[in-house]
Amino acid sequence: MSRIGKKPVELPSGVTASVSGQTIEVKGPKGTRSFTATDDVTLSVEDNVVQINPRGMSKRARQQWGMSRTMVANLIEGVTNGFKKELEIQGVGYRAQMQGNTLKLNLGYSHDVDFVAPEGVTITAPKQTEVVVEGIDQQLVGEVAAKIRDWRRPEPYKGKGIRYKGEFIFRKEGKKK
């Protein structure tokens, strides 16, 4: 039995939701997002509460029940507060700066890495060693942050590279003579 799906999703003030068929559209102060649920669940909006119920008790229906509830909750969170991923750059000479819509990264390669911010995501570099990725779509924000991190992943010997803020890198000891 899904325990997540049972919990109704409350709509904060300033946020409206409308259901048409299997698609729910959520409008808030930061924008509009929509999600199309599978045929295994039913969506309903009553009294500023979004309720998700399964159509039957098959394993797939119960899986979709909890997942759909989480997706709707993430839509509401995105249009009210938005999502944010912070990255730290560590390493001598490693730095980041914004030029218009392009993030320029100096990561020890023979060339600069230019990363163009996709539509719906805002990238800022408050310091040369920090990058902040913000947006209303949680998946897109996480994907963009992961792509930036992939340019120079943190290595375990010196800890150089791009890491998420607060990420712990397990350090290894180097060779001994």
From TrEMBL:
<dbReference type="InterPro" id="IPR036789">
    <property type="entry name" value="Ribosomal_uL6-like_a/b-dom_sf"/>
</dbReference>
<comment type="subunit">
    <text>Part of the 50S ribosomal subunit.</text>
</comment>
<protein>
    <recommendedName>
        <fullName>Large ribosomal subunit protein uL6</fullName>
    </recommendedName>
</protein>
<keyword id="KW-0687">Ribonucleoprotein</keyword>
<comment type="similarity">
    <text>Belongs to the universal ribosomal protein uL6 family.</text>
</comment>
<keyword id="KW-0689">Ribosomal protein</keyword>
<dbReference type="Pfam" id="PF00347">
    <property type="entry name" value="Ribosomal_L6"/>
</dbReference>
<feature type="domain" description="Large ribosomal subunit protein uL6 alpha-beta">
    <location>
        <begin position="12"/>
        <end position="82"/>
    </location>
</feature>
<feature type="domain" description="Large ribosomal subunit protein uL6 alpha-beta">
    <location>
        <begin position="91"/>
        <end position="164"/>
    </location>
</feature>
<dbReference type="InterPro" id="IPR019906">
    <property type="entry name" value="Ribosomal_uL6_bac-type"/>
</dbReference>
<comment type="function">
    <text>This protein binds to the 23S rRNA, and is important in its secondary structure. It is located near the subunit interface in the base of the L7/L12 stalk, and near the tRNA binding site of the peptidyltransferase center.</text>
</comment>
<dbReference type="GO" id="GO:0002181">
    <property type="term" value="P:cytoplasmic translation"/>
</dbReference>
<dbReference type="InterPro" id="IPR020040">
    <property type="entry name" value="Ribosomal_uL6_a/b-dom"/>
</dbReference>
<keyword id="KW-0699">rRNA-binding</keyword>
<dbReference type="InterPro" id="IPR000702">
    <property type="entry name" value="Ribosomal_uL6-like"/>
</dbReference>
<keyword id="KW-0694">RNA-binding</keyword>
<dbReference type="InterPro" id="IPR002358">
    <property type="entry name" value="Ribosomal_uL6_CS"/>
</dbReference>
<dbReference type="GO" id="GO:0003735">
    <property type="term" value="F:structural constituent of ribosome"/>
</dbReference>
<dbReference type="GO" id="GO:0022625">
    <property type="term" value="C:cytosolic large ribosomal subunit"/>
</dbReference>
<dbReference type="GO" id="GO:0019843">
    <property type="term" value="F:rRNA binding"/>
</dbReference>
